[in-house]
Amino acid sequence: MVSGSKTGATQRQTPARESRESEALLMERIRAKDVDAFETLYRSYRNRLARFLFKLVHRPHLVEEILDDTLMVVWERAEAFNGESKLSTWIFAIAYRKSMKALRRHQDPVDDKAAEERVSLDPSPEDEFGRERIRALLLQAIGELSAEHRAVVEFTYFHEMGYQEIAEIMSCPVGTVKTRMFHARRQLRRRLAGELPDWL
Question: What is the DSSP letter of 120?
Answer without folding.
Answer: T
